[in-house]
Structure formats: C-alpha cells, structure tokens
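In the previous lecture we treated proteins in isolation. Real proteins rarely work alone, and many bind small molecules. This record shows how such a complex is specified: first the sequence, then the SMILES for adenosine-5'-diphosphate.
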Amino acid sequence: MLELININKSYTIGGSTFFRKQTMKVADDICLTLEQGMCLGLVGESGSGKSTLGKMILGLEQPDGGEIWFEGKNLLTLNKKERLRMRRHIQTVFQDCYSSLNPRWPVYESIREPLANFEKLSASEEKRTIQELLVAVGLKPEDMTQFPHQFSGGQLQRISIARAIALRPRLVVLDEAVSSLDVLIQHQILQLLMELKQQFKLSYLFISHDIMAVRSISDPLAVMSNGRIVETLSVKEPLSSMKHPASRQLVASILPSHPRDRHASKLVSSSAG
Ligand SMILES: Nc1ncnc2c1ncn2[C@@H]1O[C@H](COP(=O)(O)OP(=O)(O)O)[C@@H](O)[C@H]1O
Ligand SMILES: [Mg+2]
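The predicted 3D structure, ligand included, written as tokens:
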C-alpha cells in the first residue's frame, strides 16, 4: 500500500552571525513498506526524524530525494489537484489534540471540517455521520455540542481520531498519538485503534518513542536512529533479539514494573516477548 524508496531529507540550520550554517540529515536513504491492513510501527529516540518522515508521507514536508508510492501512485510526482484528492485517503492523529481541534469550536465543527471540504452532504446527513463517528470512538452523540475544554485528554484523543477517520481514509499516520496519555488511557486508546482498524479497514503508520506502545499495536516494527532505519522486527520475534545499539537502548529504557526488576532486558524476554 505504501512504499518509501530512498527517501532523503536534510535541514539547514544556523547561518547567522553567531551560528555556523550546518546541514542536518533527518532522513538518510529510508526504505520502508507498509502492507494493506497492517500497522507499521516506527520507533526511535526523540529527534531521530520520525515526525519528519510522517510529515513527508502526509505531504506537509517535501523530501530532497526519493519516491513515496501510495496505492500505485508516486505522491511526489502528483500535481496539486491530484495531491489534494489524495489527502483524504491519508489522515493523521498527532500527540497534541489542540493542533487538530479548535478550542473555540464545538466538537461538531471539528469533525465536520474535513467532511465539508471533501463531501457534499446535507445538514442532516452530516449530523448523522458525526454522531456515528462519535459512537464509533466510544463517545456519546450528544457530546458533539461540547467544547474541547469539557473533555479529558483521552476523550480529546478519541475526538481527534473521529476527525481523522471521518473521510474513511485508507492510511492513518499516528504520530505519538498516545504519548501524552496516562498508561490506563493509553491502553484504552490503543484498543480502540485496533478495533477501528478492523471496522474501517484502515492501515496505520504508528510513530512513537515508546517501544512498548509501538510493540503492542504494530507488526512489523522499524527502529529509526539519526535519520536511518537501523532494524526491523516482526511481532513473532522477541524485542530482546534486536541487535542494533539504538534498538537495545530503547529496550533498556523500558521501565521495570518494580525498581527491584532493574534489568529491562529480563522484563522484555519474560513478559513482552
Ligand atoms: N522545520 C525544521 N527545521 C529545522 N530542523 C528541524 C525541522 N523540523 C525538525 N527539525 C529537526 O530535525 C530532527 C528530527 O526531528 P523530528 O522529525 O521531529 O524527530 P522525532 O519525531 O523523531 O522526534 C530534530 O533534530 C529536529 O530538531
Ligand atoms: Mg516526533
């Protein structure tokens, strides 16, 4: 469904009187494949280039070189009109709900926006669609008249998800979508994402710095470090089998359930598999 071929991207920083101009490579010959109906996990330490890669797939950043194939089309060679049409099929959920939900809008307006941009629905069809979406993400139809400040973090993320799936996209890029939530709510949202994936026939690119969150939903999992994919792992292989130092560092950073179980690798081989 999605194939990235030799994606390269650099940022130039500095160049002022005080800071020397520097080029920083955030994507270094990245090749990745996401099969239809799967969830590809992308994990790596902060600053490794994960979000930039997500943005390039969403068309929010332009790679310096490479190809991004989505359902048989190279996204980088589409003209503006084709690209716009393609956008409805690739949606996103970010960590920060406020970047997708306008705090001054009732929930109704936030979910309605993509529908209004791409679909010509009557007012009553729109209302019914919005209510169905809210129910699909575990909220109540009457929640649509409430404002973002009236919801908890987990509920806001449910609304962001409803907005992202409103147009029945085929691919959803989830960038740190559960990272700001507490562990219990994280678990509920991950569960919801798995259910929605089945129900709406979605494919996911699940990006996070949290290897346990990525592991719990993704297959396969790709580890990113300094703009490179350094290792990929299928769900059948244990985390402890990873060899690259960057992967091992991520595994070692998993907190034990009790301080006395300090050796994370032991934890991983025994419980996370
Ligand atoms: N627009 C930008 N201009 C310059 N540098 C950027 C820009 N966006 C991101 N970066 C830098 O690129 C690197 C990778 O960022 P990012 O893709 O956000 O990483 P991650 O999501 O893995 O934390 C970081 O060092 C970040 O500071
Ligand atoms: Mg990021």
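Summary for your notes: The longest strand covers residues 22-34. The chain has two domains: 1-15+23-89+170-240, 100-168.
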